[in-house]
Amino acid sequence: MTSSQASPARAASARAYGAGALGFAIATMLGSPEVAYAALLLAMLWLALRSNLSANVQIGVASIAAVALGVWDGSGIERIEVVGQLFISLLKMLIAPMILLSIVYGIAGMSRARDFGSIGTRTLLLYVATMALAVTTGLVFVNVFDPGVGSSLRDSEFFSRALADAGTAPPADLSLSASLVRVLRSALGNPIRALADGQILPVVTFAVMLGLALLQLGERARPLVSVLGAANAAVMQMIAWFVRLAPIGIFALLGSLVASTGFVQLAQHLGAFAAVVLGATLVHAGLTLPLIVRVMTGVSPLRFLSGIQPALLVAFSTSSSAATLPVTTRCVESELDVEPEISSFVLPLGATVNMDGTALYEAVAALFIANVYGIELSLASQLVVFAIAMVSAIGAPGIPSAGMVTMVVVLESVGLPAEAVALLLTIDRVLDTVRTMANVEGDAAVALCVSRLSRDGAPSSSD
After folding, report:
1. Where does the pLDDT of residue 443 fall: very low under 50, low under 70, confident under 90, or very high at 90 and above?
2. What range defines the domain where residue 46 resides?
3. Lower CB density within 10 Å: C or N end of the chain?
């Protein structure tokens, strides 16, 4: 957008904010809180659907307004909690179709990886390995630092109601073998019933098996794979629509949370959670991935990180690994000497299936929510979190704040209330920038490793 186009757009957005604030103030003075919040929500809806303001700006303004109204006694912001619950319902509505279609299409679409032979095998194994290391790092951090432990947030009306509506969390006192048997029985349930009931584990199991079957059928399955691809794209488009409504959902949920739990305690626990996520992500991105590159290629961490710096900056600013793909491709080809035939295969695949930062974030978030509710997840339950975080991250669309959708999947897989995602939405966009950088760095690291291994057949000794 040019500067001449941006000015009218900013002016229109300012008028919308002003009209909503004025309507809210007048209705409040007249003693009509319902009308006041209706005016404010309509202005926010117009901005979400029509304005060119970035989602970051809208979410930031919505969060500030929600906190201000939440700490204001008598603001009545808890009246619009239902709006936030509707937003969560919108996200939950698409979870099962998204997981089914994205996993089936993702696995069935790996025929190109099979055609690439050893290159495809190396790429997939490295992507799985880097994601597993990321999730492991996150789980170690959250178990060591225990963010959310000792919180009284669960005693608030908001969280108590959410826990009452959720499924029962897996018992913590079962043995590992008994817990795994319990999980396996759940995973092998009827997939049709699971789709209707919103049970995630059976859907994931069926999706993986169907995807592998279609991959095995090869050319005969191509028509069905094309249909699944179109259906998957349609669901992702619907998710993009709903994500645009995030400022409204965050406003309603955060305002209700602050009003019912208190801002200080909320900020304290969210700060601890954010610190753990950032610490674990920085360890993975700053130590683990550069070390993998050093060991497998001989390229120094400094050269690797400086070579992909432009891609990391774009990932930070856009929060989208898909939008960063052209810059990542240019960086690895021109700065790290990755062959175009390698980058053109490895990087697009990575932008779809390799989400190191997202998987790490979701694993940490699941255990944080369990700590908030005073639920101690057993080792088996944490293994379920490990697996579901990886699978759901693979199914996450490459758009900003997509992790909030798949986060619901991880929570429900271990019996935690999906409504608790409201606690995470408040800082999701800030953390999204960092985890997207980790996603992009993971893609570049794998591309470089595959290139050197394919070229030399062994780790390079050059720097």
Report:
1. very high
2. 3-81
3. N
Q: Nearest to residue 111, comparing CAs of 215, 214, 213, 210? A: 215
Q: What are phi and psi of 253, to 5 degrees?
A: -70, -45
pLDDT on residue 302:
94
461 within some domain: no
Interaxial angle between packed helices 321-334 and 340-353, expressed in degrees from 0 to 180 and rounded to the nearest 10: 150
Residue 104 and residue 67 share a domain: no
* Count of the separate structural domains present in the chain: 2
pLDDT digits (tens, 9 = 90+) for 43-64: 888 888 877 777 777 888 888 8
pLDDT given at position 375? 81
User: Same domain, yes or no, for 97 and 186?
Assistant: yes
Question: Percent of the chain having pLDDT more than 70?
Answer: 81
pLDDT tens-place string over residues 331-366: 999 999 999 888 888 888 888 778 898 889 989 988
Q: Do 222 and 371 have their domain in common?
A: yes
- Number of residues that this document lists for the chain: 463
Please give the pLDDT value at position 164. Answer: 61
Q: How far is CA 14 from CA 2, 37, 64, 67, in A?
A: 18, 18, 16, 20
Burial call 293-308: b when 16+ CB within 10 Å, e when fewer: bbebbebeeeebbebb
* pLDDT given for residue 113 in this prediction: 62
Please tell me whether residues 138 and 276 are part of one structural domain.
yes
Tracing tokens 């304290």 back to the chain, one arrives at 268
CATH number reported for the structural domain that contains residue 392 in this entry? 1.10.3860.10
- Tokens standing for 209? 């098996």
Tell me the whole-structure pTM to 2 decimals.
Answer: 0.79
363 near 176, Cβ under 8 Å?
no
CB 192 within 8 A of CB 400: no
Is residue 19 within 8 A of residue 43, CB to CB? The reply is yes
CA distance 433 to 431: 5
Residues 279, 359, 208, CA angle at the centre, nearest 5°? Answer: 165
Do 137 and 184 lie in one domain? The reply is yes
Q: What is the DSSP code (8-state) at residue 109? A: T
Predicted pLDDT at 460 = 44
pLDDT (average), residues 207-235: 86
Distance CA 264, CA 423 (A): 14
Q: Are 186 and 199 in contact (CB under 8 A)?
A: yes
Could you give the count of Cα atoms lying within 13 Å of 20 in the half-sphere of its Cβ? 20
> Same domain, yes or no, for 330 and 436?
yes
| Residue 56 included in any domain | yes
How far apart, in whole angstroms, are the C-alpha atoms of residue 368 and residue 377?
A: 11
